[in-house]
Amino acid sequence: QVQLVESGGGLVQAGGSLRLSCVASGRTFRSYAMGWFRQAPGKEREFVAAISRSGRTTYYADSVKGRFTISRDNAKNTVYLQMNNLKPEDTAVYSCAAKYAALIEQVTLIAASYDYWGQGTQVTVSS
To answer: How many angstroms separate the CA atoms of 54 and 58, rounded?
Structure first.
């Protein structure tokens, strides 16, 4: 069992930055590939970014590429999402997710493939 707790959301003006954190419980964090997803009101959940167990492999949605950076600190059981140059269309509830990964460089973009989810943190970008 893995519990995930996100933090770092808030209200920011367009062009600003936020860093989201997701802390995982348990001693097996290194066994999980991690992902960030978001869901805006009235819209379906969408993939944002993913990172492999080692942290060497990452993948981003086209809408955030070049603005967002996913990273992880396995010693702290934490995955981060650095968000720069935020836009109003980035407004959503952001959730982190964990997927047990047999392959160390595996990344997963499909929400249904993930095993555990956090409660989410609200990010609001004003214009």
So the answer is: 10
Going by C-beta distance under 8 Å and a sequence separation of 6 or more, which residues neighbour residue 19? 8, 80, 81, 82, 83
* 71: phi then psi, degrees, rounded to nearest 5: -150, 170
Quick: pLDDT tens for 8-41: 999 999 999 999 999 999 779 999 999 999 999 9
What one-letter code names the amino acid at 35?
G
Q: For residue range 83-109, what is the model confidence (pLDDT) as tens digits?
A: 999 999 999 999 999 999 999 999 999
Q: Tokens 């509830």 appear where? A: 93
**Model pLDDT for residues 49-82, shown as the tens digit of each residue:** 999 999 999 999 999 999 999 999 999 999 999 9
Residue type, 5: V
Q: End-to-end CA distance of the chain, in Å?
A: 40
Using DSSP's 3-state secondary structure scheme, residue 31 falls into helix
